[in-house]
Amino acid sequence: MNKAYLVAILLFLGIGSNAFGQRPPLDPEKLQAARIAFITTRIDLKPEQAEKFWPIFNQYHENREKTMRQLSDLGKDMESVSEEEAKSRIQKRFQYQAQLLENEKAFVSDISKVLSSKQILMLNNIARDFNRQLYQRGRGGN
After folding, report:
1. Digit-coded pLDDT (tens) for 99-124
2. Which residues of the chain carry a pLDDT beneath 50?
3. Please, are residues 37 and 9 in contact by the beta-carbon 8 Å criterion?
């Protein structure tokens, strides 16, 4: 895929979503396509890099999301937990946070065979930028 094609996809998704006053929930496939285009463009992935990058990234992203959900679940029903349960949840939180760090280290180790260090560093901010852009569009911002 060339850069112009990916930019056109992003523009199409952006214009299409702004055309409606009340936006329906985002289609997961469209969201994934937009994320792929956004990341590919921002870190300037070459086709040969993309072929190796996406399977590694997708696995990392899936594992990260699973762990983040588990972390989030620890905060549920906090009003009714016992002191012992609270202590247990605190320990689990530390375990999940350590797991996130270990997974990120493994991801960086694997992905460094595909991307430059500069691209990896850029990747750290891209997810946040993508989510910020989605949030702003959802609020009707630019």
Report:
1. 999 999 999 999 999 999 999 999 98
2. 5-8, 10-11, 15-20
3. yes
Provide the token pair at 110: 């694997």
Distance, in Å, from the CA atom of 86 to the CA atom of 139, rounded to the nearest integer, reads: 36
Domain span holding position 131:
3-138
Q: What is the C-alpha separation between 114 and 56, in angstroms, rounded?
A: 10
Structural domains of the chain, count: 1
pTM, full prediction = 0.72
* Per-residue tokens: 131: 């989510």
The number of angstroms, rounded, from the C-alpha of 27 to the middle of its chain's C-alpha atoms is 16
Q: Which pLDDT score is estimated for 5?
A: 47
Give the Å distances, CA to CA, from 44 to 2, 71, 93, 97.
10, 33, 35, 30
